[in-house]
Amino acid sequence: MESSDDTKLGQSCSSDVNNDNNMPTTSAESPFNISQDSKTYYPETKLPIQDELHSVLDSILHMLNGSLKQEGEMLIMVTQTVIHLLKGLKEELDTRRELTRVERFSMKRFEGSDEDIKFWTGFYSYETLIVFYEHVCQNHASSLKYWMARNSQEEQANKRGPKCSFDPIDQMFMTLVKLKQGSGNKDIAERFKISDSYVTRIFITWINFLFNALVEGTNIWMSKGKVRKYMPAFFKGLYPDLQVIIDCTGISVERPSDLEVQAATYSQYKHGNTLKGLIGISPSGVTTFVSDLYEGSISDNELTMNCGLLDLCEPNVAIMADRGFTCKEAIMKRKLRHVTPHFLMGAAQMQPHQLVESVAVARCLFS
What we know:
Largest sheet: 7 strands, mixed
Shape: elongated
Radius of gyration: 51 Å
């Protein structure tokens, strides 16, 4: 009996074996797998941890996707907010800049007031000043080389900086205001909202430019015939040969740090440091000569002899001056007549004809 049962079991097992590959197989409905190595059977089960792991991974991916989406939306909101703030800041900056430009002492501020333009600059109207700028200054304003102090010029010669926001037309306006009003740098700096040193740079630069554009190369000297043509009757009756009336003037300057320059520019008459120049006018009141500036310590006589005025005078004309000009002999050597008030020269009183001449000269000089 046992042998028969064993035989049936062996036949059953052998029928399930793949004869070609000599490998065990199972039917589709079999709930068992056979290990190739151990040839043992075990049930096919799905571990609970796998489902849990898949669930956790799905949750993480879902959270990440949601987080990234939220972060993206947040980034867009932040970017839009920043752009909005920047636009607001730009508008506020433009508004402040416009207010500063209007509040600052500028030509635009006096656009509608010819009276103010005349007061501050001497020009008769805003339109006249605009025409002057357009015809004389505009084409050269962008190429001006700005003056710098000696101690900083070499250092900053090749240094590039931000573009100046002070319009050239207002630089010209500032220069004219300083000339007309005689204002100090501190006053000008406060009015135009710039530094004291920048006032100096702009003023010196524009003075040199305006001199080159308006004065240098321009012959303002009047010939003997033209002076005679426009001479007032009062002068014709007294001094028909009068060519020019001269006087010296001193311009106060800051005390130089260099001791030699300080001594050379010191004027005993002005009791301070000055530069001195000579001005000549015709009998009709037209300015016909302006000398270069010399050190304040130079005498009137020395300045008269060296400034070039005498070289312009034709022979046999008269030069009128105050009594401080005592270079009569040097002038007469050039065949010129020197007209000044008479001195007492130690006498108790003047001779009648001297008194008459002195009064006449005084009337010419101070009338």
